[in-house]
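Good morning,

Attaching, inline, the backbone tokens for the sequence recovery test we're adding to the shared suite. The designed sequence is right after.
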């Protein structure tokens, strides 16, 4: 029996732990901008999300930011749901299996990009944030 025979895919809680570890490793200035953002992990996006994002398959999306980013926010609206990042475990694992990237790096990438796009950051800004997280 090979050493791989006993391995299994990380479950939702393990991916969520990776996401929280990745968030904790991000530069303080970025984390401060993210105050109040919650992180959720599900196996797949729900049907409403798939429809809104025009996805052909539940594997088409690795993560999603829901809420109002700093680039768009003004007054806080009463009754507004908190800003949240959704990471989708099965599409992330599928992508990971086909690429030469560690799972932790991939989770960090998805997390930073989902938050970053909604906070008006450029791809170059997000690349710098990811690189800084890797230096911790």
């Amino acid at each position: 029996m090979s050493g791989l025979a006993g391995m299994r895919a990380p479950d939702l809680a393990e991916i969520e732990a990776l996401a929280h570890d990745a968030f904790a490793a991000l530069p303080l200035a970025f984390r401060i901008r993210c105050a109040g953002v919650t992180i959720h992990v599900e196996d797949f996006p729900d049907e409403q999300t798939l429809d809104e994002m025009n996805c052909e398959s539940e594997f088409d999306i690795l993560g999603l930011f829901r809420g109002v980013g700093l680039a768009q926010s003004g007054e806080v609206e009463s009754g507004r749901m908190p800003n949240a990042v959704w990471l989708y475990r099965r599409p992330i694992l599928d992508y990971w299996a086909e690429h030469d990237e560690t799972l932790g790096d991939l989770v960090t990438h998805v997390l930073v990009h989902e938050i970053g796009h909604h906070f008006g950051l450029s791809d170059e800004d997000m690349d710098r944030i990811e690189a800084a997280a890797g230096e911790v």
